[in-house]
Write a structure and sequence with these properties.
The protein is mainly β and 138 residues long. Helix content is 3%, strand content 54%. It has one domain. It is globular, with a radius of gyration of 15 Å.
């Protein structure tokens, strides 16, 4: 029997400004969970975005950066990779867990992109992928 995976992809914005060509992408892997705690200090810039979800605790697990236009695969954990190709106006995001594609989506990255990845974490939480356009610092 084929297992059906529920995937929630939400486009939620905290900024209306679009980044210009030649800018960077910030990619973050976040664990959302229950219990005592708060939002990790490293996630302050997306706190408003995260508070829209129904979890009290957000912990940054990994982060990476990529240039635009993108054409690279980023290893976020031992078993999770994110492949990015294309420009900000047509960015292809492929998430691979244990050599299996769990998410493939094309996005226009004008605002932060948030994806809730399928499957629970070891602690019963959820994995979130956040991709933000970041202006380059010249």
């Amino acid at each position: 029997m084929k297992m059906r995976t529920l995937l929630t992809v939400a486009l939620l914005g905290v900024t209306g400004a679009a980044a210009a060509a030649g800018d960077q992408l910030s990619i973050r892997l976040v664990e959302a969970g229950q219990g005592a705690g708060d939002i990790s200090p490293e996630l302050r810039d997306v706190a408003r975005l995260l508070k829209r979800l129904n979890y009290p605790v957000y912990k940054l697990l990994a982060s990476a950066a990529a240039g635009l236009p993108a054409n690279q695969t980023l290893k976020l954990t031992d078993d999770l990779q994110v492949k990015l190709t294309g420009a900000q106006a047509d960015l292809r995001v492929v998430v691979i867990r244990r050599r299996k594609k769990i998410l493939a989506v094309n996005i226009v990255l004008r605002k932060p992109f948030l994806a809730v990845l399928p499957g629970a974490t070891r602690s019963g939480g959820r994995l979130l992928l956040i991709i933000l356009p970041k202006p380059s610092r010249d």
